[in-house]
Amino acid sequence: MTMSRENRTKERLVVVGGDAAGMSAASQARRLKGPDALEIIAFERGHFSSYSACGIPYWVGGEVDDRDKLIARSPEEHRERGIDLRMRTEVTELDVDGGRVRSRDLDSGAEEWTSYDKLVVATGARPVRPSLPGIDAPGVHGVQTLDDGQALIDTLSRTEGRRAVVIGAGYIGVEMAEALINRGYEVTVVNRGKEPMATLDPDMGRLVHEAMEGMGITMVNDAEVTKILTGDDGRVRAVATEDGEYAADVVVLGIGVRPETTLAGAAGLPLGDHKGLLTDLAMRVRGHENIWAGGDCVEVLDLVSGSERHIALGTHANKHGQVIGSNVGGGYATFPGVVGTAVSKVCDLEIARTGLREKDAHRAGLRFEAVTIESTNSAGYYPKADLMTVKMLAELRTGRLLGVQIVGREGAAKRVDIAAVALTAGMTVEQMTALDLGYAPPFSPVWDPILVAARKAVTAVRKTAQ
């Protein structure tokens, strides 16, 4: 069945993807335009809408005790607000020239075409799932959606053994290692890099490595997984590398994600070097007046290096949705770009970064100085003061801040927000030393660790300039 434009009396917005970016866009458009002016149809292939994918590791680990706490707005709530949200319905084709999408009901198998005047592509990202023998065996899990999280929890509840292997040591990998530790598993992390957290420089990643081993997690770095071994029952029993085997009753893939742009690519929409959709500042797909895209399926401008990056974060997705909804609804908004801020934790270790790593700065052709300092999260004499390490990059000659990485205990991670603001404002490290930051002994030394690093960076830049 095809719904033609001629049979409609009002404008129609079609949204592909029912999570953060897509439903934020739909909700914002609905706030600006009522149901008499704009019809909104949204398609979501999963069982859930508008949920926090970032919270899944904490639900798996038991820190969040109820799956529904991760859901910001249910399908029923969206429908009550005048959005026709069709769950368990997968869009299988985008007909850009014809202004329509083909969808399939995953329960009944029924297919139909739906026309649109304006289209939002918010198809998210998919977990990297390497083509390895045994990768699809029972007991091997990727974790990207609530459905994925539920499947993993179901497996953990049925599994008698207590050995888990996490493949990959990025954000998802270390967060899932913590979740499994919290559930009483013996955890091994197999990582192809020399150190965990490739979003950090190796010297900072080494601090994460040492801390994870101190928590009882077995780290296997510089190791390439070659296959997943299975038992007589077909279930996973071990993960194999070129140098050994690691017993596993459950395997979690934490290798990272890629933009889910299969439909967009097939429809001829423009993709960048990372295979994410390319948009303008209004989040409109380049070269297409009535198509917008946002969330984990797009590439964004890095304000520090000036290049396009793919960063899968719920914060960006929600902002993209607000921008798209404003523009679709007749308003005006832009998304200027990002500085690459991210925080994570594994048990009580906090990890943060913003801006460029050393290799990013080299790739961008920048000359810089890198400094590292150790400080504490509170006054040294205050009870339970904990160490943190701060690394800072500053551009030669100009002294412009280029990036900050932090590894430490309580109070370490959110300090990166100071640096994120400084990066966005284009501040120099010398300007940062004069920042009027909050101080009291329970929260900071007299000189905050960020400012200590900035002072050292100023000295390094001046010395090099002489």
UniProtKB/TrEMBL annotation:
The yes or no answer to whether the keyword Flavoprotein is present is: yes
Keywords, ordered alphabetically: FAD, Flavoprotein, Oxidoreductase, Redox-active center
Coiled-coil portions: none
Chaperone among keywords? no
Q: Which InterPro entries match?
A: FAD-bd_OxRdtase (IPR050260), FAD/NAD-bd_sf (IPR036188), FAD/NAD-binding_dom (IPR023753), FAD/NAD-linked_Rdtase_dimer_sf (IPR016156), Pyr_nucl-diS_OxRdtase_dimer (IPR004099)
Q: Which cofactor does it need?
A: FAD
Residues annotated as domain Pyridine nucleotide-disulphide oxidoreductase dimerisation: 344-446
Query: Could you tell me one molecular function GO term of this UniProt entry?
Result: oxidoreductase activity
Q: What is this protein called?
A: Flavoprotein oxidoreductase
